[in-house]
Each structure stands twice: as structure tokens, then as C-alpha cells.
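Input.
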Amino acid sequence: MSESEAGRDDAVLIARCLDGDRPAFDLLVSRHHRGIYNMVYRMLPSAEDASDVTQEAFLRAYTRLHTYKPEHSFLAWLRAIASNLCMDHLRRRRSETVSLDQRLESGFEPADESPSASPADQVTTAEDSKRVLAVVQQLPEKQRAVLVLRHIEGLKLTEIAESLRMPLGTVKTMLFRGRAAVREMVGEL
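Output.
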């Protein structure tokens, strides 16, 4: 399904939701849950937190669906809600720290490796991914959000700006600074 077809389908489901059809929202959730959860999981320190924030994002979207503007992408609007909830969550828990061991115990999944890679290459790739993810977790929440949306979710800069409700120039600056910080910290490791 193309992005424009998905957007049209979302618009139909949203219209049905606004007319009181609750199962239509269930379809929206099933369509977007995995992507939102994956994004949130990469921004938060634990799978449990990611699950809670993802659920809160969909609840907030449902209760505020009347404020959604159809000229924008529903997925971008949903990502904005989820990103803002992540940043709020991180601010509340700023004093708590999470070790890499805790991340691994909570079900951290390394990036997909090529099935043709040797076991040694897969171990090296997994270790590098863990190291980079641990460094990304230490970044300020807005830089972290921009890096996750760009490099893990694969969004364009304009989509990130729309999702995070930031000017495009700010997104570019956050991306540049975040990359520089990751390079510096990974180099120290």
C-alpha cells in the first residue's frame, strides 16, 4: 500500500471514528501500533516504558481526534503525540539512569543483521549497535528524538519537523549536534 493510499484509508477511518464508530479506531491502532511502539522504544530506556507511552499516545490520539487536521498526515500527528509523550516521560525520569545491562535484560533487540554475515560479524554488529544505542540514550531528549526519527524510522527532515513541531532549521541543527555527540562518545568507548 502506498503512503497516499494509507493516508486516504486513515482519513476514512478517522471520519468513521468521529461519527462514533469505535472499531474504526481499533483499525487505526492495529495499522500504526508497531511503528509507533518501535519509535518510542528507541527513545525510552525500557520496553515497559515504551509500551506504556505507546498506549498513552493512542489514548491521547483517540480523545483528541477532533483536533486532528486532515490536511496533515495522521501518522505524523500520531508521531508528534508519541514524541512529546516520550520527552515528557524523559523529563520526569531525568534523574534515573539505566545501564546497558538493564537494557539487555528488558528485551533489547539489536538491529537486523544480514543473514549472510558470519557469526563474528553479527556479534561485532550487535555490539556496535548496543554501544551506539547506549550513547543515543544519553543525548538530550530532542536530539535523541531527531536521531531516532531520522536514522531508525527513516523519516525525511521535513517529516521530522512536522512530527516534532520544530522549524526545519532546528531539526537540522539537532541532527548535526546529535551525530557529532554520538561520534565523540562512541570514539571514547
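The chain has nine helices and no strands.
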